[in-house]
Amino acid sequence: MALLDVNHLDVRFALRRGDVQALRDVSFSLERGERLGIVGESGAGKSVAAFSLLNLIAKPGYIAGGSIHFDGRDLTAMSDRALRHIRGHRMSIIFQDPMMTLNPVLSIGEQMVECLKAHRRISTREARAISLRKLEQVQIPSPAARLDQYPHELSGGMRQRVIIAIALLLDPDIIIADEPTTALDVTIQAEIMALLLELCETHHVGLILITHDLGVVSQVSQRMLVMYAGRVIEQGPTREIINDPQHPYTQGLINALPQMATPGSRLNQIPGSMPSLDNLPSGCAFHPRCGFVERADGTTRRACIDLVPGYVTSGNGRVACHMVAEMLERERIPAEEIR
Amino acid sequence: MIAFLIKRLFHALLVMFVISIIAFAIQDNLGDPIQQMVGQSVPESEREALREQLGLNDPFVVQYLRFAGNALQLDFGYSYIFNEPTTEVIARHLPATLELVFATSLLIVLFSVPIGVYSAIRPRAWLSRLFMGVSIIGISIPVFLTAIMLIQLFAIGVSWSPFPADTGWGAWLNDLVSTEGGMPAYGRGRPVPVFGTWATNFASLEGLTYLVLPAISLASIMLPLFIRLIRAEMLEVLQSEYVKFARAKGIPLRRIYFIHALKNTMLPVITMGGVQIGTLVAYTILTETVFQWPGMGLMFLNAIQRSDVPLIITYLMIVGLIFVITNTLVDLIYGLVNPTVKLTGKPA
């Protein structure tokens, strides 16, 4: 069994006008030391997925179904007490905006020491020593002085380094990074990403990287998920998906990269925008924006409009698309006839 | 820090100067003090002579400069009604008011923080809803009405018998809705002298019972205000990213609430509190009148009724001074609690 095994995860938000489904049927797994990328537009459910892994979704959100097995135990069925010992200890998280993540009235040292003390019986002196070592590992300038400084005395890049140091404090098995570089300067983004990657490799820590930057995912992760409107619409080895995307949405995403456009011409884009979760279109949620609802011969693929697509296996990955399913079906029949 | 204090001292002097002008300007518009001082039978010529003798006919600026010069030597003139220096009158009344304000502040701090925090952590619990409902009532009932109701309930006592008294449960319920009374609600009792004009109600149990009802009614508006303020701030802080991050770090909830959230919640509350302590001193006028508490508020009301201008002016100066001092203290405390604030003499 994999270190992390998410099966058919359903997350809903209980609103006054009824439940809104933020995640539906999300399944994936992560091996020890593996790096997984989750991509998608804003609102696709990436962050909800990250938070639900630690069972940290804020009310009115709740896990409505499915399971999250971590190291053999189901996190969705765990007591708050037991969960607390997993959070920050076995699985830690890095937030998007380092300016908001640290408590402004507590010193860096306090915020690191409390984390160690929450999970280990340890003296303040020892905890400070470990904290200092971690600050050195994230290559922050003059680490010893930082312990007694407050967040406002540090730049955004330095704060994100501190947060990475906190995430690494207890040598977790998995780090979930929710767009860890989005709020940073472009020049610092690459530095922080390289640091995170290096630390995960040297400490053999699994990484779940949530981003909308396909470039980063292709460099960092071994496997990736593409999310659309709360569903995983394609997943598989990163290299395969980047080189040969199956789902029309993934194709659109890759096609929209600036380097895919002819210099001087307009950038490619997917027409339309993502539907809101409380008003999903029928059938495949992507069908109003999809160029493949009509077949090449001009007939309409009714299933796209009427039926929610199931998963089909394609290569080493899984795709939720009627068009791909149809193509695979067509390929299989002649192969059987030959036999 | 020293530079900060010097700067604040300069500010304080400026504020006191402005207050002194305003306070002094009142005297021309507050009736004729001569009328209050002498009897009906005194002829107009004698009145005019007295007016001349007291300098009440001089131009405003001359009168103000004379007043300011004396004030710098802590001489604010003679109270017409007490016939002694106003500073001595104030010194006699100040301790009673300060003790009442202190007791009230203590009540507010002791109750507003736990109740505010609880109702932010459990916003949907019935107890939170009860606190919120009662606090609205507290805010909307005027202080003097609260005071009178408290006196009726706990000083005089009420005996209601809406239930049949001849049955066991009826008698029990009647006892439940009736109150015994007996709490002191007039004056300070016999406060224990400490030194000079200062006698304290805090030194004996009997003294403390005299404080209970006045302090509760003085707190009746400010306490709900602070409960609601703390609740609102805390609710906002609990939504913040750093609280979410603390939870993701696996920090125990108790520490998240009382270290991570409460410290940030208290920053704006401290600022508000500083301003409100000054306001409390002003609110004592109503409470002290209802309970005949021999403090500055009651004294001030008497001074107004009898046009005792020097006493009124001195009172305004003292209250202004209390405002200035508490605000400076609060800024100092704020600087100690909030690491993003550095106390310097430089303009921000």
Automatic annotation (TrEMBL), chain A:
InterPro entries: AAA+_ATPase (IPR003593), ABC_Ni/Peptide_Import (IPR050388), ABC_transporter-like_ATP-bd (IPR003439), ABC_transporter-like_CS (IPR017871), Oligopep_ABC_C (IPR013563), P-loop_NTPase (IPR027417). One of its GO terms (biological process) is peptide transport. It comes from the Bacteria. It catalyses: a dipeptide(out) + ATP + H2O = a dipeptide(in) + ADP + phosphate + H(+). Residues 6-254 form the ABC transporter domain. It is found in: Cell inner membrane. GO terms for molecular function: ATP binding; ATP hydrolysis activity. It holds the Pfam family ABC_tran. Its EC number is 7.4.2.9. Belongs to the ABC transporter superfamily. PANTHER family: DIPEPTIDE TRANSPORT ATP-BINDING PROTEIN DPPD (PTHR43297:SF2), OLIGOPEPTIDE TRANSPORT ATP-BINDING PROTEIN APPD (PTHR43297). NCBIfam families: oligo_HPY (TIGR01727). This is ABC-type dipeptide transporter. It comes from Halomonas ventosae.
Automatic annotation (TrEMBL), chain B:
Pfam families: BPD_transp_1, BPD_transp_1_N. The chain crosses the membrane at residues 9-27, 100-118, 130-156, 208-230, 265-286, 312-337. GO terms for cellular component: plasma membrane. The keyword Calcium does not apply. SUPFAM superfamilies: MetI-like. This is Peptide/nickel transport system permease protein. It comes from Halomonas ventosae. It comes from the Bacteria.
